[in-house]
Design brief:
With 298 residues, the chain is α/β, with parallel strands linked by helices. It has ten helices and eleven strands. The longest helix is centred in the last third of the chain and has 23 residues.
Amino acid sequence: MQANWDDLRVFLAVARERSLSAAGGVLRLDPATVGRRIHKLEATINAVLFAKSPQGYALTEAGSVLLTRAEEAEAAMRAAIAELPESSDRLRGQIRIGAPDGAANYLLPQVCAEIADENPDLDIQIVALPRVFNLSRREADMAIAVSAPTAGRLMVQKITDYKLHLAASSAYLAAHPTIATATDLNDHRVVGYIPDMIFDQELDYLSELGVKRVHLASNSVSVQLNFIRQGGGVGIVHDFALHAVPEVQRLLTQEISLTRAFFLIRHQDDRRNIRLSHFADRLSSGLRAEVARLEALT
């Protein structure tokens, strides 16, 4: 007997999420139903696909073999659907974007809101996580990154450069010694990333400045900016985020100015997906325009 596509869809969700409850959330099924579907599939193909472990549902050897074939079937299905002609120029369905939280908080909401206005039948999901997304596991349809990956079956497109500067709140500056040069930072509380949670070398701003100690740290850009806004200390801030915190001002702009870039990452299997390509083009152009607009306000 052979498994059908609906069986494989359930199998893929459990293989990727490693739990029945998480897979059920993706599939919009209750965990008990997901479990029954997996047992039925295993009986159909006469193979045990998962072993229960402390970390969740782990693939057996047979499960690993089926995962490869199921992902091939999924890619073929996605490609076939993507090549069907659209009845109009508007986008439909659901698209999920993975992004670092700086872009997710200060750029993507307004850009995606505009795209949603243009495409009322489109649902857009933004997953804001301070880490690299795994597109092979279909954690997202596409991802924004701060460096271009060099491995994997991926398509990489540079979106735009963006600027960052040293900044502090007016209240903090009024209550602490003057910052005239970068060496003066030694006399101030510094806000930045938790050192061992920096997931991309491009984010290690403070090491680049020779800063040894981070007094107030978070893996979240938004938390760091709130530390600074509340007078916690001095830190590196995206220029495009400064409009949200008018009480924060840039410092030493001639001495300290950083440039980074955003890249749009897609899976190679989606290269012929007209729908995702259309969305990616619109997203990229919107992000370029929004970074330029917000940076012009500083």
